[in-house]
Specification:
heterodimer, A: 68% helix, 0% strand, B: 283 residues, alpha/beta, Rossmann fold, 2 domains, 6-stranded mixed sheet, 11 helices, 10 strands
């Protein structure tokens, strides 16, 4: 049952969106978020929506998968919509009603903003493998090394964590089965009781995780690991023409959004 | 034969323990040989292995790897590059999400040029027969396959010696076979020195040399055939004689004249058949 969890949410593919350098994609997502928050008129939202749709089409991610990412946020979306509908001053839809035309417009825009924000950022994780993401992050944060930020340590921790997620999930499954076989009950009882029932899973899980960490450290040292100093990479990321084109398009997009904001469109 | 690893009166006690885990081990391991180390849990065989690449350093005495002292911090990376180590649990020694990235880990640490890393990784994966799996995620492989990837990760470092600490303890028979065959081919075809630690008798049969450890001491050191013929020593150490050795012993006890100590099933059968044939022709 725990095996169903897909972390990182990466859908392998061979599209342009998949082939772009992870650094380009990370920068583009940041550009996208900034641009999205410039939208404050209908034309602005239309442009962002069109760009998002175009990117989705390019990456060949099914809209149903996109919706899966949005579903957990549904409560927040509905709440935002409701608050905006009821608490915006303006001309009532009918005399005496609390709902205003302005409120409806605000609500639609807010919902659009959240949905677009989620879709845009999910496009990054959907089209980029976790390893490529950490590699991209390490390279992008490289200048921070001068400020004594432990960039290499942070990224190696991230990739180790990603490596061990499936291992620890299958271990949790095993421990759960073992405890169930001895009569543990995880599914019934009050919330407090169920939370307490998790303790016999967490304790052995932590103990074994520490043991694993210890063995892993010895194994890494045995393979000459001695920090990031003097380390090379087999797979080197190289920016290609398509990356520069994508970045240029991103810049154009951002410029357009700034102009639109200027004229409040 | 020139020695590549030399243990000189090595004593070691774990910080939390009172009892010595190694009590005065002195021996040397020859270049290109396949040395099997046999012993029960707590016999000190893992401690012995961890001394070979400086994971542990002796409390007393010293360990030399191709002339380098393992207690010398300055040369520790050199020592570890020369002595590759494979551990028992394959899950806890693979560091990357993709097989080929894992194999590349050691050469990356050593600062090898990217192009050469690629070549080494491909060669290492071919060597262990895992090249077709280079893009797979390690956690989806079988135990034997994971362990072969771990071996490839060590080969990519281009070590002179490879030490395996019970690499088959957590594997099924099929996985054990895969790993043992891979290790033997490394020694016989590539001339790598192998130190193979195990508690499976049958995996030691083809080794050049067998060391039996107990309570942190070397109890026996010699050719596998000689050691397995010594029923008294094996009984004392609580080790089981391989079936072939036991059969030969029983046949001898019942009056059959057999020469030599063949340990593999095929050799043993051949010897018995020969003797039977010559007896029949005589009668």
């Amino acid at each position: 049952m725990l095996k169903d969890i897909t972390l990182g949410q990466y859908f392998p593919g061979n599209t342009v969106a998949h082939k772009l350098d992870p650094r380009t994609k990370i920068i583009l997502v940041i550009v996208y978020i900034v641009a999205l928050f410039q939208a404050n008129g209908w034309i602005g939202y239309a442009v962002v929506t069109a760009v998002t749709a175009a990117c989705m089409a390019l990456s060949k991610i099914k809209p149903s998968n996109m919706f899966k990412g949005i579903r957990p946020m549904l409560v927040i979306i509905v709440l935002t919509a409701a608050l905006n509908i009821f608490y915006t001053q303006g001309t009532p839809v009918r005399p005496g009603w609390i709902i205003t035309w302005e409120g409806i417009a605000r609500a639609v825009q807010m919902v659009l903003r959240i949905v677009l924000l989620i879709s845009g950022t999910f496009l990054l994780t959907y089209t980029t493998s976790p390893i490529a993401l950490t590699d991209g992050l390490e390279l992008l944060m490289n200048p921070l090394k001068k400020l004594k930020v432990p960039v290499h340590e942070m990224t190696i921790m991230m990739s180790m964590a990603l490596r061990f997620i499936p291992t620890l999930i299958s271990e949790t499954d095993k421990i759960m089965s073992a405890q169930k076989a001895r009569g543990a009950d995880f599914e019934t009882g009050s919330l407090v009781q169920r939370a307490k029932a998790l303790l016999p899973i967490l304790v052995p899980l932590f103990v074994s995780a520490f043991k694993r960490a210890d063995e892993l450290a010895v194994a890494m040292e045995s393979r000459c690991y001695h920090g990031g100093e003097g380390r090379t990479r087999m797979k080197q990321l190289r920016m290609q023409t398509r990356d520069y084109i994508a970045l240029a398009l991103g810049a154009v997009f951002l410029a357009v959004m700034f102009v639109l904001k200027r004229y409040a469109l | 034969m020139e020695p590549v690893i030399v243990f000189d009166n090595v004593h070691y006690t774990y910080p939390a323990d009172e009892k010595e885990s190694l009590c005065g081990v002195s021996l040397s391991i020859e270049k290109g040989s396949f040395v099997a180390v046999l012993g029960h849990n707590g016999s000190g065989k893992s401690t012995f292995a961890k001394h070979m690449n400086g994971i542990l350093v002796p409390d007393e005495g010293r360990v030399l790897v191709e002339g380098l002292d393992t207690s010398d911090e300055e040369h520790i990376i050199d020592v570890r590059r020369r002595v590759g180590m494979v551990f028992q649990n394959p899950d806890n020694q693979l560091v990357a999400n993709v097989v080929e990235d894992d194999v590349a880990f050691a050469p990356e640490n050593l600062g090898v040029e990217p192009k050469e890393i690629r070549e080494r990784v491909d060669a290492a994966l071919r060597q262990v027969g895992m090249y077709d799996y280079r893009m797979h995620a390690p956690h989806l492989l079988s135990g034997g396959q994971k362990q072969r990837v771990a071996i490839a990760g060590v080969i990519a470092m281009q070590p002179d010696i490879i030490v395996l600490d019970e690499p088959t303890a957590m594997l099924d028979p099929q996985g054990r076979r895969e790993v043992v065959d891979t290790v033997f081919s490394l020694c016989r075809e590539k001339g790598m020195t192998v130190v193979y630690i195990t508690h499976h008798m049958d995996e030691c049969i083809d080794a050049d040399r067998l060391i039996v450890m107990s309570n942190g001491c070397v109890m026996a050191d010699g050719k596998p055939a000689d050691i397995f013929a010594n029923a008294e020593l094996l009984r004392r150490e609580g080790l089981e004689q391989p079936e072939t050795a036991r059969l030969l012993q029983d046949l001898r006890a019942s009056g059959m004249r057999l020469e030599g100590e063949p340990l593999s099933v095929e050799d043993c059968a051949e010897l018995i058949a020969q003797v039977l044939q010559s007896e029949r022709s005589r009668s």
